[in-house]
């Protein structure tokens, strides 16, 4: 019996290096296992008093005991020698088992018994077969990982004919040579073994079908060679995916016994049988001897008998072979026994080349290919050359990542909310500390934060630099104004008409000019006298406060000059005689021809500067030749040396001062004096107008400077305040906001403050239309916002103040501002008919829901304008209507933003809008 768990495979490792399915085919040379079994003396032999001629001194040696002491004993050594006492099981286990079970691992195996007739071949092979079958099924039972298919076929070679023992009716079978499978028996039945009993049953059939005959030596002498072939195919279970199988055959061969006719007394059929037996056995012996000769040199006569043809693979081929030589110990059979042992001795030298036989079954191959096709199709359908399980694992991994990210986002949101909450708490605490009434109810905290944002982001030294730049520009403006006034003075002085009022005007202008020169000098001294130092910021602020009056003074002087010019023009107009002369003189005389009234350089260069590029200069050169001995008061050098062009010099004799237009001949000719006077008057008029325009521009520029300066002052104040209370909260507020967002927010706040402070809707309109969010608008919005914020606070403290018509009075009542606003609306209502067409009016009435046929529809319309500060569409449409009514759009001229302050005044009200001087006063600057 096969002892489990020792499998045949494990046993085989000792003899064959590779027995693992799928491990590849490995070939190992192996000698035929040759053992000798000595049976006991038979009854027949014992009856004849036959002698035992053989001895088994050990398991490997058989020794011939020569009764004739004169001859030496002959010994034979084999792989195993079984004495008569040995059981068939021992013979199986030690002489056949390993070879037999090799078939379970894909190695062909052949076990056959060779010996004289009646030596015990059939007896031994029955036992070997039975044990092998038992072990095979035991192995199958213990090897569940593999599926086994066992088939059985059986044949006999009788008289050199192949007969199917499982189907004797098939007659004599042919042997075919297959290129791959070798010699095959045509039409040999191969039964699939269901179980061990089935196999036993089939084997029993074979024995029953075998030719047996009685001889003198054996009552049941086998008269044929019998081959029972067990084919074992085994493979791993299907789920493993392995398609290869072990396929091997186990040949259990019971040869017919060699015999001597003289011994067997065979005749007739037995003799014939014996002849065939002996012939085939002779071939077998020849083959063995050939094979045992080494190197397989020479011809091996396999084909000389069907037995050797069929057993060819087992004889020096792809099989493990075990030969059990059976023998009788009787002295009477010693010659036959010697032949057997001689055969056995030869067989020991035969080397086989057994290898594991692997096959791929068609069925398994088809299944395997089908699965492979399905797998490939699935891969083709999938986006990546990955298996579904891999994709699934990827999906799981991504889901985990998403969940992780969601958790992180949730945590970040929580932290953000917490930070915002803390920030709000700190803001609230700060607001409570500073007092909630400081900035009123209109979102001043946010506004403060926004303003501080721009302030705190500015370096103090930068602010000082900006202030200095403004002062420098202011000083330059003052100098330009002085030069303009000097030129004007010379012009006027050179055309003195003897008018007392004019003389007084000129005198006043001279005084103003002197004052302005002082202002200019003062500003210059400041700039030159101090060093820019961020550390002295507070001193800068103090100095700026003192300069505020300087700027105001400069503006007042300019206003005075303006009035003087107006008076001068008025006086000149009264003396004009010839209305058409202006046209003529314009062409001939244009001493102050200004190609651009805003350009001070043109004023300085006119009229005789070589740098002048106007065509008038060419005309002057032709028609207004300068006398060689004349004093050219209006030459360019007069501007470069202003001290030489004094008013006294130009007007001391009451006549017109000789100019480049006046020839010596004309000066002496009194006939032309009147004409020249008119000409000069007209020229003066033109020049004065030019100067006036220039002065107006100067005022505008000063206003702009004041705007900028005031903003800087405010920023400095903020900065100063922030120095003492810089907190973490403010640091967070310093993060810059996009300008467009700041603009939108500030404009909304401004609109609300306009509404709360009852600011002029004309002012609102102009501001709204003028500042639409350009980067340069920032300064105006911040100033406006700061101004309104202060006003709102201030009015709240006063309780009844209104900025609408404050003018120079800082504490007007709210009722008066509302009244002023009402007057403004009444003024605008009167302009509805003149500024809007009938269709426009009707459309507006419908749109603004003014009932038809009602009284004062125009006033109803205007009263609805600028009344909803939270509705930006309302604000926009209100501004558009007011702009039409005021005429902002019809003048055709571009209203510069720098002139905005000048236009703050109500067109119907000559009162000056409260300027920055007032703001400065209110801020205690
Ligand atoms: N080892 C043995 N122990 C006991 N009896 C044996 C043994 N071997 C053989 N016999 C007996 O010897 C007789 C002949 O045996 P067997 O038929 O097996 O010889 P054989 O070699 O097959 O003869 P043949 O070639 O004529 O068929 C049988 O009666 C058998 O029972």
From TrEMBL:
Feature: compositional bias, Basic and acidic residues: 409-434
Report domain Kinesin motor positions: 31-350
Query: Which stretches of sequence are listed as region Disordered?
Result: 1-26, 409-459, 633-670
Report keywords, A-Z. Answer: ATP-binding, Coiled coil, Microtubule, Motor protein, Nucleotide-binding
Family as reported in the entry's similarity comment: Belongs to the TRAFAC class myosin-kinesin ATPase superfamily. Kinesin family. KIN-7 subfamily.
> Mind telling me what this protein is named?
Kinesin-like protein
CDD domains, per the entry: KISc_CENP_E
Domain of life, source organism: Eukaryota
Task: Please give the InterPro entries that the UniProt record associates with this protein.
Answer: Kinesin-like_fam, Kinesin_motor_CS, Kinesin_motor_dom, Kinesin_motor_dom_sf, NACK_C, P-loop_NTPase
| Transmembrane listed as a keyword | no
- Residues recorded as binding ATP, renumbered to this chain, are 115-122
**Spans of biased composition, class Polar residues?**
435-459
Q: Which residues form a coiled coil?
A: 537-571
A Pfam family reported for this protein in Swiss-Prot or TrEMBL? Kinesin
């Amino acid at each position: 019996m096969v002892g489990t768990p020792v499998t045949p495979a494990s046993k085989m490792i000792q003899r064959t290096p590779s027995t693992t399915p799928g491990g590849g085919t490995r070939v190992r040379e192996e000698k035929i296992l040759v053992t000798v079994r000595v049976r006991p003396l038979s009854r027949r032999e014992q009856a004849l008093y036959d002698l035992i001629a053989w001895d088994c001194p050990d398991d490997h040696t058989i020794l011939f005991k020569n009764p004739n002491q004169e001859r030496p004993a002959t010994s034979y050594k084999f792989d195993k020698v079984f004495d008569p006492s040995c059981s068939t099981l021992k013979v199986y286990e030690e002489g056949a088992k390993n070879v037999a079970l090799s078939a379970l691992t894909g190695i062909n195996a052949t076990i056959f018994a060779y010996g004289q007739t009646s030596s015990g071949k059939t007896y031994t092979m029955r036992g070997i077969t039975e044990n092998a079958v038992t072990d095979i099924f035991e192995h199958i039972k213990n090897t569940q990982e593999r599926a086994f298919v066992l088939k059985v076929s059986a044949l006999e070679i009788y008289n050199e004919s192949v007969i199917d023992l499982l189907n004797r009716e098939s007659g004599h079978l042919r042997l075919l040579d297959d290129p791959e499978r070798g010699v095959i028996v045509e039409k040999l039945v191969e039964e699939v073994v269901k179980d061990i009993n089935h196999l036993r049953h089939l084997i029993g059939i074979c024995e029953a079908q075998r030719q047996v005959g009685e001889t003198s030596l054996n009552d049941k002498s086998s008269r044929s060679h019998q081959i029972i072939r067990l084919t074992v195919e085994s493979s791993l279970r299907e789920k493993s995916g392995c398609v290869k199988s072990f396929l091997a055959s186990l040949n259990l061969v019971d040869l017919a016994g060699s015999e001597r006719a003289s011994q067997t007394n065979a005749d007739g059929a037995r003799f014939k049988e014996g002849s065939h037996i002996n012939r085939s056995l002779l071939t077998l012996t020849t083959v063995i001897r050939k094979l045992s000769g080494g190197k397989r040199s020479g011809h091996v006569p396999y084909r000389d008998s069907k037995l050797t043809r069929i057993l060819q693979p087992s004889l020096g081929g792809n099989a493990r072979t075990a030969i059990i030589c059976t023998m009788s110990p009787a002295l009477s059979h010693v010659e036959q026994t010697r032949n057997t042992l001689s055969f056995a001795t030869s067989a020991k030298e035969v080397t086989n080349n057994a290898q594991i036989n692997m096959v791929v079954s068609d069925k398994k191959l088809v299944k395997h290919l089908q699965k492979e096709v399905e797998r490939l199709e699935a891969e083709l359908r999938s986006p990546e050359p990955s298996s579904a399980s891999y994709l699934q694992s990827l999906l799981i991994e991504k889901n985990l990542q998403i969940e992780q990210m969601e958790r992180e986002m949730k945590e970040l949101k929580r932290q953000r909310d917490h930070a915002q909450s803390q920030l709000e708490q700190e803001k609230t605490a700060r607001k409570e500390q500073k007092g909630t009434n400081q900035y009123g109810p209109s979102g001043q905290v946010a506004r403060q934060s926004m303003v501080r944002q721009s302030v705190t982001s500015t370096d103090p030294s930068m602010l000082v630099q900006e202030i200095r730049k403004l002062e420098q520009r202011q000083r330059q403006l003052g100098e330009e104004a002085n030069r303009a006034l000097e030129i004007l003075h010379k012009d006027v002085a050179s055309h003195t008409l003897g008018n007392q009022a004019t003389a007084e005007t000129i005198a006043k202008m001279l005084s103003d000019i002197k004052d302005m020169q002082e202002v200019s000098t003062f500003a210059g001294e400041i700039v030159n006298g101090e060093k820019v130092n961020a550390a002295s910021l507070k001193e800068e602020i103090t100095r700026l406060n003192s300069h505020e009056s300087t700027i105001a003074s400069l503006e007042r002087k300019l206003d005075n000059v303006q009035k003087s010019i107006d008076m001068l023009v008025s006086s000149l107009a009264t003396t004009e005689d010839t209305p058409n002369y202006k046209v003529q003189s314009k062409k001939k005389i244009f001493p102050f021809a200004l190609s651009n009234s805003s350009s001070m350089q043109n004023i300085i260069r006119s009229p005789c500067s070589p740098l002048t590029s106007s065509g008038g200069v060419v005309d002057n050169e032709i028609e207004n030749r300068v006398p060689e001995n004349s004093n050219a008061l209006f030459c360019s050098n007069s501007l470069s040396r202003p001290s030489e062009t004094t008013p006294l010099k130009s007007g001391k004799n009451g006549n017109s001062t000789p100019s480049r237009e006046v020839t010596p001949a004309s000066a002496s000719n009194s006939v032309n004096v009147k004409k020249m006077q008119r000409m000069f008057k007209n020229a003066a008029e033109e020049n004065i107008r030019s100067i006036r325009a220039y002065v107006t521009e100067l005022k505008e520029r000063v206003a702009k400077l004041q705007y900028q300066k005031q903003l800087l002052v405010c920023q400095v104040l903020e900065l100063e305040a922030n120095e003492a209370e810089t907190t973490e909260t403010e640091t967070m507020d310093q993060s810059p906001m996009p300008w467009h967002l700041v603009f939108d927010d500030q404009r909304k706040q401004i609109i609300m403050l306009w509404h709360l402070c009852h600011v002029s809707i004309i002012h609102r309109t102009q501001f709204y239309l003028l500042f639409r969010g350009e980067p340069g608008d920032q300064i105006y919005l911040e100033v406006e916002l700061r101004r309104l914020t202060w006003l709102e606070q201030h009015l709240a403290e006063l309780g009844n103040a209104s900025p609408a018509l404050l003018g120079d009075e800082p504490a007007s009542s709210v009722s008066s501002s509302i009244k002023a606003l009402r007057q403004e609306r009444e003024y605008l209502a009167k302009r509805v008919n003149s500024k809007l067409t009938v269709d426009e009016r009707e459309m507006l009435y419908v749109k603004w829901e003014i009932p038809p046929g009602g009284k004062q529809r125009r006033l109803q319309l205007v009263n609805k304008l600028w009344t909803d500060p939270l509705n930006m569409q309302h604000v926009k449409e209100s501004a558009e209507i007011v702009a039409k009514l005021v005429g902002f759009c019809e003048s055709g001229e571009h209203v510069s933003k720098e002139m905005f302050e000048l236009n703050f005044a109500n067109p119907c009200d000559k009162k000056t809008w409260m300027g920055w001087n007032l703001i400065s006063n209110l801020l205690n600057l």
